[in-house]
Write a structure and sequence with these properties.
The protein is mostly helical. It has one domain (3-283). It contains twelve helices and two strands. The protein has a two-stranded antiparallel ribbon. A hairpin with a 4-residue loop joins strand 1 and strand 2 (159-164). The protein is globular, with a radius of gyration of 18 Å.
């Protein structure tokens, strides 16, 4: 293998580490950053970038989720109950993306991606403004029926946090939309997942982030199967992205249960705004 492919491989790995680190800490998934990084930084066609990012999303989920499950932050019951919506949504999203790729109408993909990136700023911005505080809502019918309860030990607060979820049906609808975005853009749709778990179910931020990471891999796996059949996954590129994102997500998972979310969310906010604007400009043909 010549020096150029090796350098290309290393650069993608480094980019994946950065994407995985930030994606893991916020629960939004490393692919949200990885896809625009490959497109804008390496000038890779968006369909190949999306394919690589889906593989990386699975790596993110595997790396971060395993650590979160071990630390008993992830609520597996809630995550699995919401996967029905994301799985069906992912199938629809991939089929729509394939039609747009075939028609060579990539500007729509760029615009939608830019909007999705800027939208993902909302959960982070709100957490900073509210100082990570979420108003509790009394248990409702879905809380009892689906047993949407749990607890975890917060190392920073040095105490066990008990919580309950509400409005499961509304959350399932948002998860369906998240699945569509995942298949369409080749991302884990962590922004919508975190928004659903935070805003609809009112779970603690750390539980939302950990459960979102757990769900991202299942959603991405659905899209990956179809992307592979369509020939949009390049093993060399996907392998490098997966190695980088897996490493970054593992590092990030070590900090989630020890550090506050304010600084990380602010960092993510700045990066996402910049990438979102660039993707929108690309979609409108500005550069």
């Amino acid at each position: 293998m010549s020096m150029l492919p090796i350098l290309f491989f290393i650069l993608i790995v480094i980019g994946g580490i950065i994407a995985g680190l930030i994606g893991s800490l916020t629960g939004l998934g490393g692919a949200v950053i990885l896809t625009p990084l490959l497109v804008l930084g390496f000038n890779i066609p968006i369909y190949y970038a999306a394919g690589a990012s889906l593989i990386a999303s699975i790596a993110t989920s595997s790396g971060a989720a395993s650590a979160y499950v071990k630390d008993k932050i992830t609520n597996i019951k809630i995550g699995m109950s919401l996967e029905v919506g994301t799985t069906f949504g992912a199938i629809i999203g991939v089929l729509v993306a394939a039609a747009l790729y075939k028609a060579n109408d990539l500007s729509i993909i760029f615009v939608i991606f830019g909007i999705a990136l800027l939208f993902s700023v909302y959960p982070s911005l709100k957490k900073i403004m509210l100082r990570n505080k979420i108003k509790n809502i009394k248990p409702d019918k879905t809380t009892k029926f689906f047993q949407l309860t749990g607890s975890y030990y917060d190392e920073k607060l040095k105490k066990r946090i008990r919580y309950h979820g509400v409005r499961w049906w509304y959350s399932e609808i948002i998860m369906f939309i998240a699945g569509i975005i995942s298949g369409l853009l080749g991302v884990g749709s962590g922004a919508l997942k975190v928004l659903s778990l935070d805003e609809m179910m009112r779970l603690p931020p750390k539980v939302s982030a950990a459960t979102s990471d757990f769900m991202i891999g299942v959603t991405a796996a659905t899209g990956t199967a179809i992307y592979w059949q369509l020939g949009y996954i390049q093993p060399f590129m996907a392998g490098a992205a997966a190695i980088g994102v897996l490493s970054g997500s593992f590092i990030g998972s070590k900090f989630l249960n020890k550090e506050g979310n304010g600084f990380v969310r602010m960092l993510f906010l700045i990066v996402i705004i910049a990438l979102g604007i660039q993707m929108l400009l690309r979609g409108f043909g500005v550069f």
